[in-house]
Design brief:
- The structure is a single chain.
- With 537 residues, the protein is α+β, with helices and mostly antiparallel strands.
- Among the domains are: 4-49; 70-87 and 405-536, Cytochrome Bc1 Complex, Chain D, domain 2 (Orthogonal Bundle), CATH 1.10.760.
- Helices cover 30% and strands 10% of the residues.
- The chain has helices spanning 4-14, 25-49, 70-73, 88-91, 94-108, 261-265, 269-281, 329-332, 348-355, 358-363, 369-377, 387-399, 411-422, 483-487, 501-506, 513-520, 524-536; strands at residues 74-75, 125-126, 147-148, 158-163, 184-185, 201-208, 224-231, 249-254, 293-294, 307-308, 402-403, 433-434, 449-450, 458-460, 471-473.
- The strands form seven sheets. The protein has a three-stranded antiparallel β-sheet, with no helix packed on it. Strands 1-11 form a two-stranded parallel sheet. The chain has a two-stranded antiparallel sheet with strand order 2-5.
- The longest helix has 25 residues, at 25-49.
- The two termini are 34 Å apart.
Length: 537
């Protein structure tokens, strides 16, 4: 593989018009030597920017905790490609590797509305055109944005939530909007919320002063910010008599990381229920999980049908990967149908609104408004994604490896680990789990000890203006120390209000209040050690 500058040099040396004066042998040899040296240098530079298979394997035998995703699910790479690697078990199986690469292509491509083309099926309304649009570098968290909400902005991985602030459960408005409201549409359809009408959607970041005046006891200061999101009434498809935005609140949630989700899915339901019981005995997670999620009623799980405790999404609303991230997103973000999802991701109110639209009525010439609405709401839409493509996509989704831990033997990191435990952080950010005996979709990752640093449960952090996420799943911490390298930023928490790890910790309250107090009262040297430990895992 040649860099562009290498090719340019090659053209400079060799693309001469015929009939020009001949080079002398020595000059020719000298030019070839320069080209060879330049090519070698450029190739070396290119290799530094490309994933190298040899870099994904350990250079020696490490202790168990370095293998964050277990021996079968960990790669040793710390470059900007750290979140993109297939698990070793995928690499070692030609069939799985082929499916993985096919799934990665589906993730990275933009879907289009035109039928009969590759990756067709977009719309009629959608949230984003591709997976990569919300999950840059697969790390999950995109970059915090300010000002105009533009879904075409490559930094913007936010999903919107529109909810009733007066409802005890902060119920989302799912009568007029889908759970993740769409802001884009394929003509002649109109989006439920139009980013380009009126003032569209605006995100403003406000300063917050906590009970300590944003200052540690030793005098070091920090800053805290939180988002205020507004949607102009003019941008809403529905009249104020139907949806009055002055009576609703809008929240933003950043997308969750993809790497390692297959390993989290492989944790047994029994172990997760036992962890929930343990937390309840500590006085945490009271009434926050409730009944298990019935996968048979909400999309199905061909490997493990029935009910499963929620473990995916910020609110733990999905119990398995086959009815969770990826499986849903490839359908409801792009509105691309497949055999097991043959309905459109729209509301009845939206279908009725479009049935009255003159441009849409022209598209459905000869049908009544009721027939148009019924057609849009039909659960028998033409499948647009093949199940082979979907299966490959899920192999990719399941097969993304976790980066190995780093520098765990460093004395300062070891000190940080002790402080992490003594401060009580490990009570919710549970260090390790063991995957189930027979994880059918990917048996090779069964019986693996993994180190995700999460209990996969929801906790109330009593965060100031948290949006709809008043209770939030404990974020897995594995690999987060590489975010700056992979994504170019270190924004954290559900709405990316924390710009670094210190801010993330200082936003903790409620069930994490005691742990935050212990961190706050540590000497700076100890605070730095704890942060260094978090960067290492």
């Amino acid at each position: 593989m040649f860099c562009k500058r290498t090719i340019a040099l090659a053209e400079c040396f060799h693309l001469r018009k015929k009939g020009r004066m001949k080079m002398k042998v020595k000059m020719k040899q000298r030019a070839q030597l320069i080209l060879a040296v330049t090519c070698a240098a450029c190739l070396a530079a290119c290799e530094k920017d490309q994933p190298n298979d040899s870099n994904t394997k350990p250079d020696k035998e490490y202790s168990e905790e370095y293998y964050a995703g277990g021996k079968a699910g960990t790669v040793f790479i710390t470059s900007s490609f750290a979140y993109k690697q297939p698990m070793p078990v995928i690499d070692e199986d030609p069939t799985l590797y082929k499916q993985f690469m096919r799934g990665e292509r589906i993730s990275d491509r933009s879907f289009v509305a035109t039928e009969g083309m590759g990756y067709s099926g977009l719309g009629p309304v959608y949230v984003r055109k591709s997976c990569i649009a919300c999950h840059p570098s697969y790390g999950g968290h995109s970059q915090r944005i300010s000002g105009k909400f533009d879904s075409n902005d490559s930094r913007n991985g936010y999903l919107l939530t529109i909810y009733d602030p007066n409802s005890p459960t902060l119920a989302m408005n799912t009568t007029y909007f889908t759970g993740m409201p769409q802001t884009r549409a394929v003509l002649p359809f109109k989006p439920p919320i139009d980013e380009n009408k009126g003032n569209g959607i605006t995100i403003t970041w406000l300063n917050h002063t906590d009970d300590y005046g944003n200052k540690f006891p030793d005098g070091e200061t920090y800053e805290l910010i939180y988002p205020q999101v507004t949607i102009d009434q003019e941008a809403v498809l529905f009249d104020a008599s139907e949806v009055d935005m002055s009576k609703h609140k809008v929240g933003i949630e950043a997308t969750i990381g993809i790497y390692g989700t297959g390993l989290l899915d492989a944790i047994s339901d029994e172990d997760l229920r036992a962890e929930h019981q343990r937390q309840q005995e500590r006085g945490y997670c009271q009434g926050l999980i409730g009944a298990d999620i019935d996968d048979d009623a909400t999309g199905g799980n061909k490997y493990y049908p029935g009910k499963h405790p929620g473990r995916f999404t910020y609110l733990c609303t999905r119990g398995s990967l086959d009815n969770g991230p990826g499986a849903n997103a490839i359908w409801n973000i792009t509105n691309v149908n497949r055999t097991d999802r043959t309905s459109l991701y729209i509301t009845r109110k939206y279908a009725e609104k479009m049935s009255q639209d003159p441009d849409v009525r022209q598209l459905y010439s000869g049908l009544t408004s009721e027939q148009i609405a019924d057609s849009l709401m039909s659960s028998k839409q033409k499948p647009e994604m093949t199940m082979d493509d979907y299966e490959a996509f899920m192999v990719w989704h399941r097969g993304l490896a976790v980066p190995a831990a780093r520098n765990l033997d460093d004395p300062k990191v070891q000190r940080g680990k002790e402080l992490f435990s003594s401060a009580g952080c490990a009570a919710c950010h549970r260090p390790s789990w063991k995957t189930r005996d027979n994880y059918l979709p990917l048996p090779a990752i069964s019986n693996q000890t993994i180190y995700p640093y999460t209990d996969l449960l929801r906790h109330d952090l009593e965060m100031h203006e948290p949006g709809r996420a008043q209770v939030c799943r404990t974020t897995p911490l594995w690999g987060r120390g590489l975010m700056k390298i992979v994504s170019g930023h270190s924004d954290r928490l559900h709405d990316l209000r924390a710009r670094n790890t210190v801010e993330a910790i200082m936003w903790h309250g409620g069930e994490a209040q005691q742990s935050k107090e212990k961190f706050r009262n540590m000497p700076k040297e100890d605070r730095d050690a704890l942060i260094q430990f978090l960067d290492a895992i």
